[in-house]
Amino acid sequence: MQDRIDVDALIDGLIEREGGFVANPADEGGPTRFGITEAVARANGYRGAMRELPREEAASIYRRLYWLRPRFDAIARRSARIAAELFDTGANMGPAVAVTFLQRALTALNRSGKDYPDLVPDGRAGPQTLAALDAFLAVRGRSGEQVLLRALEALQGERYLRLAERRPGNYILDVENGGCTSVSLERRHVGHSQPCFHR
Hints:
mainly alpha, Chitosanase, subunit A, domain 1, 7 helices, 5 strands, globular, disordered C terminus
């Protein structure tokens, strides 16, 4: 199951989808560049104007905070496809949310604890989560990996819908009708999970 993953290409693709500088007054996350919010940039030592955040700095933030810190590199050694999905979700909603989705999905798919113990959805990809993923992939193989990917995507979609429902007057734009530029329904701003809404 160990497909190789090019994390640099993954980060570059995310940066391309995010685009350059955005300062939408309706966006609660404030100004962004390459999908990095000003708060995240400042917390990581960037002091310049957001409009001038270097691409290399954004890539470095993505690698540190959204790939290495949540241990998606360890997940990639088990499944490149699962790690790529978690990275994308983590950039949208936060890495802990992405890992929680993985933990919830693995527990739902463990055949009532027959394959491995239930996981506590704590948002950390620790030894128990990695062992559960190993056991799941060993038992279910490539077809199970696809089922797990679909479960992760379903959890992500459900969260976007819940956010839309809690914000009266907003609706999620769909990609095919010119809404968001990425495959998810999220207006991707790292450090802020504001779906692509219209008022």
